[in-house]
Structure formats: C-alpha cells, structure tokens
Amino acid sequence: MTWLVLVLLFLPMLAAAQSNVIKIPRPGVVDINSPSYYPEALLALVLEKTRFLYGDFHLQYIDEMYVANRLRAMLIDNKGLDVMWSSVTPERKLYMRALEYDIFYGLQGYRRLLIRIEDAEEFKNITTLEQLKKYRAGVGFQWSDKDVFSYNKLPFVAGTQLGSLGKMLAAKRFDYLPRASHEYRFDLSNLTPDLMAVEHLILHYCQPVNFFVNKNNYVLGDRLALGLSLAQSDGSWDHLLHSVPSLRQAQADIQQFKGVILRIKNPSCDGSL
Question: At what angle do helices 37-49 and 236-243 cross, to 10 degrees?
C-alpha cells in the first residue's frame, strides 16, 4: 500500500488536525523583483497543490518584523510561526524539520561581490582565493555565511541588517558584500549609492535554502513535502521560478558567465551545488 493511500485513509484525522491558518514571517511582498517574493509564492503554490487532500489554507503574516534568530526560536517553540525559509545548517535541522528541497535550485550559492565603485580597478586584478583573502567581506551576524567564511579563512566583519551592511561598506568598514546571484541587482537599487558588482568574479559555495516547520507539526510538514514533490513533478515549480525575472536572469548569468568562479567549501553542506 503506497504512502498516498495511507494518507487518504486517514484524511478525516488530518483535516481535523490541520488549521487552515498558516503563519509566516512578514512582509507579504507584492513586488516580483524583491528577493522575498519567490519563497512566499512557492509556499502558496505547494499548499495549493495539496488542497485536494488537506483542505483550504490561509497565509497570515505575523505582526512584527523579527530578526531571523527570533523567528527560528518562535518556530522551534511553536509560538506564533508555522513556516519559514532559511539556509540549512546541522543545528537548524536538529531543532526544526527541514523540507529537503533546495527552493532556489542552487542559485543562493553563487555570490556576486558588491564593492565601492572607487575600488573597481583594485578588484579587477583578483583572480584567486588567496588574493581575495586580503580583503574583508561583510556578512550578517545571523547569516550562516559567517561559518563558511570562517571555515575558509576569509576575513569578514559582521553587521546587523542588510541596509546597515550597505552603509558599512560605503564607510569602508569592510571591502565587499557577497550577495546571491538573484539578489544583487535588487540590492544595488536599494542600498547606498556608489556601489557596483565585480563583473569578472563569482564566489561559489553550497548553500541550500529549505522550508522549515516545527518538528512536531507533522501534518504541515507532510503537506509541504507532498506539495513540493507534486510541483516539481508537474513542472509548475519550474514555471514559477522562470516567471520571476531575477531568478531567470540569475540562471542565464551563471550559464553564460565567462569569468572566474572561486569555489569554497561549506562545512555544513554535503552537496556540491
């Protein structure tokens, strides 16, 4: 008897256990060019795919803009948050259930380097990891990238929010800000002016991003796992990804890239995306 048949047999119990209100982090982004748009759109897609089995759903945003560590604590304690998306680490997988699908198909691991325009000539000469190690990166206090940079002995300065990091870069607190291939154009439009992306260089490491749920929320976790599988199988996931300009452009950029890709290891990741 297949897993799906077993689920169908217990459908009344599932319906009773599953609330149709699913709380997710703010904000609800309507701008398709925002990096926050796609994860929420994908979540809605996979929930819609499973409506036939699990019933209706309603995405509800939590009232406050919390930092990532606070959101994770809320999810772990089952206090006001049902789903979030985040890069994967062993610790996060220990305390939360990770849905084992990289929602960005590896794009998160391709990092373009944002620098001050005045430093363009200096960065133009960088072609090796040893050369890059002479410069300091800017990373968020709560980003898992900190562990990657530390492991690979790449100097970095930690900051708080992305906006603060942009200001710190402009103020010469560090030398470059690594941003995902689908994020950096949006960031250049929204961070402090006088920044640019290094054209000939990409930093790459495995950095999957998963949906996470509370470990005891079996119904929602199974619903997302099924929905992701169905969306992947019928092509609707790919269709959504390719409908987002930043993701479509990032895929094309990587495929056509003729410059230098510096590959480093993420000690938390077994893959080679």
Answer: 160
- Sequence-distant (6+) residues with CB within 8 A of 192 are 166, 167, 169, 170
The string of pLDDT tens digits covering residues 2-16 is 545 444 544 544 444
Residue 199's closest CA among 249, 261, 154?
261
52 φ, ψ (degrees, to nearest 5): -60, -25
Q: What is the dihedral of CA 47, 53, 58, 62, to 10 degrees?
A: -70
The pTM (predicted TM-score) of the whole model is 0.89
| Span 117-148, pLDDT tens digits | 999 999 999 999 999 999 999 999 889 999 99
Tell which residue, 118, 120, 129, 102, has the closest CA to residue 202. 129
Longest CA–CA separation in the chain, Å:
66
Quote the tokens at residue 207. Answer: 């950095």
- As a 3-state breakdown, the chain gives helix, strand, coil percent values, each rounded to 5, of 45, 20, 35
User: Distances from the Cα of 84 to the Cαs of 2, 33, 135, 232, 253, in angstroms?
Assistant: 29, 20, 33, 20, 28
Class of domain 3-104+209-244: alpha beta
Taking the domains of the chain in order of start, what are their residue ranges? 3-104+209-244, 107-206+255-263
Fold of 107-206+255-263: D-Maltodextrin-Binding Protein; domain 2 (3.40.190)
